[in-house]
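Thread: quick sanity check before group meeting

JM: Hey all, I'm pulling together slides for Thursday and realized we never actually wrote out the predicted structure for the chain we discussed last week. Dropping the sequence here so it's in one place. If anyone has concerns about the input, flag it before I start.
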Amino acid sequence: MVGNYGELIAAISANTAKMRRDIPDTMKGFGDMSRAACRDGVLDAKTKELIALALSVGTRCDPCIGFHAKALVKLGASRAEVQEVLGMCVYMGGGPGLMYAASALAAWEELGGEKATP
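JM (edit): ok, ran it. Output follows.
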């Protein structure tokens, strides 16, 4: 798990920028796939990002957690929405799911999501 998601996603973004320069066709293909998958359809963008956060927890991908937590903050996801999704992650992933769900909550809060009230 990561201590600072803002720094992590900045570092990953810098490295993917290098990859866009070095393997532009591959990165364009990934970008096209991302845009197609994220486009509003039957599910809206926030719902899709909530799913992406759950998958990030399930695969234990710290950078993915950071990017999708940041997107959820931008899309106005509520603490209750994020917590409900993380509850499903714990249910489906057991102990490891709980550890990464806690990490995803920390990322969402760090990146501008609503803080818990004492």
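AS: nice. Residues 5-110 form a domain with the AhpD-like fold (CATH 1.20.1290.10). The helical segments are 5-22, 24-38, 45-59, 62-74, 79-110.
JM: adding both to the slides.
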